[in-house]
Amino acid sequence: MWLGFTDFMEELLEDERAIMNEMEADRVTTVRKLLMMSAGKRIPLSKIHHCRSLFGIPDDFRDRVAKFPDWFRVVVDGDGRRVLELVNWDQNLAVSAIEREFMVDEDKAKRAFKFGVKHGKDLDLDEDEERKLNLLNTLPLVSPYSDGSRFDLWSLEAEKYRVGVLHEFLSLTLEKKASIHHIVEFKEEFSLTKHTYQMLLKQPRTFYLAGTEMNWAVFLKDAYDENGDLIKKDPQVLFTEKLFKYAQMQESELGSVIDRK
Predict the structure, then answer these.
(1) CB–CB of 55/36 below 8 Å?
(2) How far is CA 158 from CA 143, 146, 148, 154, 163, in A?
């Protein structure tokens, strides 16, 4: 018995390989940014591989990292896991999507998030203290590329940091969305807590949560139009949509597509 792909399927696979190669530099940048956000600037390779489809990372990325010794190195930790470490920090990459938005439209970026701070005249604050307290409430986020370990776990700064990390994490994904399973995969690296669901629920202007608390997905609202379609689509997303379209065709319809090719 022999099994193989049709010529049509072989062409599709070649198209996908071409996209992976064409987008390699972008995917490498994505991994560099993930490492820059992570605690210790290191992530187990198995975690990146498990979530590779989320970011468009090719199946053979674990082999490709050897091509970039100036940016990555692979070490083996005490548990025998292969861990990807960042070699060089690039300050030009340490700018989040919300920070870029802030530079373009400061008011819009400020409105994107709301962090309540209860205070009033009874605190007897002087003008400078009042300004500092209000600043915490108006600045949208703490940079996800800062050192999150320095914040007290339950402080406002720590919450802003975690929201910022998840916003940037979603910004790096192909479809600007992720499931709880993807997010929990990086819980240790991004200093997340078990209250992530409740934390994101408090930011309805920016995040849309679908599903239940135990099985939910989170979307970046601004990445989608009023019809629920992605506004800007990565080449890999366009290719996947094409595959879905072919998969839904009847054999006769698909035959006509193949004939045209």
Answers:
(1) no
(2) 11, 11, 7, 6, 9
* pLDDT for residue 2 is more than 90: no
Q: Please tell me the distance from the alpha carbon of residue 189 to that of residue 41, in angstroms, as a whole number.
A: 8
* Mean pLDDT of all residues in 181-202: 92
Query: Cα separation of 135 and 139, whole Å?
Result: 6
Quote the CA–CA distance of 110 and 134 in Å, as a whole number: 12
Q: 36-82 pLDDT, tens per residue?
A: 999 899 999 999 999 999 999 999 998 999 999 999 999 999 888 99
Tell me the whole-structure pTM to 2 decimals.
0.86
